[in-house]
Amino acid sequence: MGSIRIVAGGLSGPVPSGSFRAREYNREPNDTADLIAGYPSPRSSRNMTQTPTMPSERAHKAAKRYIYAWGGGHAEGSAQMRDLLGGKGAGLAEMTSAGLPVPPGFTITTEACNDYFAAGEKLPDGLWDDVLGAVAEVEKETGKGFGNADNPLLVSVRSGAKFSMPGMMDTVLNLGLNESTLNGLIKLTGNERFGWDAYRRFIQMFGRIVMDVDGQKFEHAIDAAKEARGAKQDTDLDADALRELVGTFLRVVRESTGREFPTDPLEQLDLAIKAVFASWFGKRAHDYREYNHIAHDLGTAVNVVTMVFGNMGDDSGTGVAFTRDPNTGEKVLFGEYLTNAQGEDVVAGIRTPQPISHMAQELPQAYAEFERIGQRLEKHYKDVQDLEFTIERGRLYMLQTRSAKRTAVAAVQIAADLVAEGIITEREALTRIEPAHVDQLLRDQFDPSAKTSAKKITAGLNASPGAAVGKAVFDADRAAEMAGKGEKVILVRIETSPDDFHGMAAAQGVLTARGGATSHAAVVARQIGKPCVAGCAALIIDYATKSARVDGLGFSEGEWISLDGTTGEVFVGALPTTAARFEDQAELQQVLKWADKVRRLQVWTNADKPEEAAQARSYGAQGIGLCRTEHMFREGERLDIVRDAILVAFQATRAKEKTAAGGSLSPEDADAVTKFDETMGKLEKLQEGDFYGIFEAMDGLPVVIRLIDPPLHEFLPNYAEVLVEVTRMEAQGVAATDPKLVSARETLRAVEALREQNPMLGLRGIRLGLMIPDLIKMQTRAILNAAIRRVKAGGHPHAEIMIPLVGHVNELAETRKILDAEAKAVQEAAGQTVDFMFGTMIEVPRGALTADAIAEHAEFFSFGTNDLTQMTFGYSRDDAEGGFLLSYVERGILPANPFQTLDRVGVGQLVRTAVEKGRAARPGIKIGICGEHGGDPASIAFFDEVGLDYVSCSPFRVPVARLAAAQAAIAGAAERDK
Ligand code: ADP
Ligand code: MG
Ligand code: MG
User: Fold this and answer.
1) Rounded percentage of the chain residues whose pLDDT exceeds 90
2) Which atom of ligand 1 is nearest to the CA of 103?
3) Strands 926-929 and 860-863
4) 319 C-beta closer than 6 A to ligand 1
5) How far apart (Å, rounded) are the C-alpha atoms in residues 630 and 611?
6) Which of 328, 958, 937, 327 is nearest to 582 (CA)?
7) Among 978, 966, 877, 937, which residue's Cα sits nearest to residue 426?
8) pLDDT over 90 (residue 463)
9) Does 103 have pLDDT greater than 80?
10) Would you call 338 helix, strand, or coil by DSSP?
């Protein structure tokens, strides 16, 4: 078998054998301190940043090289090899190369996992031999023997995918124990209690994780043992008690599985490796990947790591810590640890862990070293690290490092600080913040005044910030089910496990009774951006009755509760929330200014009212990409005016045509014209006022105003309701002359006349203005008169008049004729000219395909990607989203909801074509997008790629889009550099 070869500096050759304990574990403290301080010494002279990416050769029996080992200060892998080694394996290798204290071990690659499944869940030929070879190297390195009764080597078997994933197999510790190695362990350590504790943990973990025994059965056995002995905590159980417990555990395994617990360490290892592989396709892991859009074919690596023991007494311990506070971003070590404990004890909430700061007193030397290592790793990875460590009899070992998950607040704070500290550049900082983080920072908070009068029932740990309001649900399946029906829920659990992930994802927030800041609930909630209050110890949760109580107060399933993840408070009832204040977030504004320097795409906003426009402008909007005039029609008394106009619109239009052709009008026709002109006049005044306000709010910036778009029936009462009303009156024998019935019948006739089979494909958009030209004329007058008034008031309005739904160039040419004539008249009447642009939306596939012809008549394009998506797919959005679309996405028929993230392949192709044709016909034509995709980061990346000038999104998405546009520019530059 081959031994570990030295990677660095191209050296190769066997590492001198020797006792791992002597060389690694008992390194002189100064030696380590030097390494951490980065002083030149034989080992640390290798700069972390120059870790070689080319691994050394390794002999292998399998067709491929599946194994990368580390130990003795050398590693075959590196941080660059996350694809192959997974995040954990790459981190262990990198830390080892850096001279940090890591127990030796090896990684079996993700490729092995994929090949295992490809071969029908069979280890690739030769892999087992290679594993045995790697085990032998670790034996040599540590001076211990796997299965050796005198000096046993124990290992942990740990899963580790490229992206850290809850839902993967839990770690099995102390593997290699059986009756005889246990005796060796006890003899070596002289600590009988420790030995039996390690053994019972091993049986418990291996039994539950690898052999699928219900974990509750072990827990019950522990509880029974504690009760029998009057022990409060697990640590109160003595060696005898633990020995007895081992007997019970072995019986539990036998009874649950019908087989004996495997005693051969190699068999244990084989089973554990396969269990890790199998967990890749476990339901929990699968769900997690679905939610996070992680590919299913990445596979997981397996890490086999020499055990170090945090449960050897009070000078031993284990912990988890972040190099900065992941909630606030504050630059302090943040974490928890437990003395005399093993790994998962900290996160499992079995005993309450101590804050890491206590360690400075309890284990000062290890603490100081840990602090230095943390800082060094942070500098090396140029990011905040999430570290796992164990202290064995005063000696520190690093077991994991990875970039820390963080809250939105922390993400922004950390990015800003790392730039200030000179660790990363502004550009790098922009890639450290997720657009979702920005979104979260602008999300609601609880109204502080409402909180003071609210019914607070308890408080826990502020595990993930934000305000969450929802109905209490005590089960993840139920939470997902209710959320699926559009209900807001809060998942309430004693503690969460990876099995609860789908419920957490569906919930507004998560509340747990147990667990600390590093518990599953806390970590996952932060990651998916859900508020979480964890460890509400006073809360008594009863799954059977689906209720929770604190003293007299409480709530049951379906009752509203409110969580403040920022403070840890829990309230009954639904508390009102207030909007987060962008003005107060200096770091966020700083980061977005960096984004502005980097991005090419402009960010505009969709705003229909002056207040919205002002809001968006304060968020950094550079224009209005869509002002929907009809939204102004729906407010208050306006709707009545609009209805009155619509009811006579067609009659009046025909009458006007008659007059124009020299005909004379009937009294009814003349009446209709009068009524129509009168109501349109009122509307014009109202609209002019609206536009004036918007031009004022956006002074100096472009404002795209879209002429009326929706089918007119949308402004009229619902057909079925009017029909029911008329029918009811008729059935009640109301006289035909009763003014109420007369008016109801009139409305019914009008509504009937406007009814369409497929309104979305009917009389709407540009077609409306061609059928009722007064709509174009009135809106043109309102827009231009408002602009003229602004100019006269010293303002700088930039109106861009936009026509929706063009499918044929002739539609646009005809519309423009009407519009231009009216514009000319308005300016002449006012004795004042104003600049305005005339453009169109591209949202009908035919419009996109003939964009060159259309560009002859349009000075700008704006993609209406909502309609374009509907018409390209042939879906009506309402019917699709209410019906089959989500099922399509779940079943993988569609990769994503195309109304959320632009379908690049289909719809995107039309966008690309239209851009190319439009620019060919009219070089420099201004092109933007105003569909909902304008606020979606993935879609923004596409719009950057196809070279649009701007994206326009809702005001609250403007900051998100600024960041996303910068990230798109950075990614685009990286792509071109390749
Ligand atoms: P996770 O992916 O859930 O973080 P890990 O593989 O990191 O799982 O293991 C969880 C914990 O188990 C670690 O934080 C550490 O405390 C403990 N652990 C893992 N391997 C070892 C080891 N070789 N020696 C001691 N403790 C270990
Ligand atoms: Mg870990
Ligand atoms: Mg549209």
Assistant:
1) 73
2) 23
3) parallel
4) no
5) 17
6) 958
7) 966
8) no
9) yes
10) strand
